Amino acid sequence: MLHFDPAQPAAYPNGRTFTEDVIDIRVALLTKNEAPPTGLTPHTDTLDRFPYLGDPHPAATS
Hints:
By secondary structure, the chain is low in regular secondary structure. The chain contains one helix and no strands.
């Protein structure tokens, strides 16, 4: 269970922030650090109002 105290800032163990890279952390935990990191990074262009994320990132071309 994830506990949250609104009197404290959002950060582990009091919830998590919107930009935390929880996928890489979770995969590392589940695989005992055997799976390589995804190389993806959280958004850095968050807004202070809903929908919180900025414009979509352009698709990568190969």
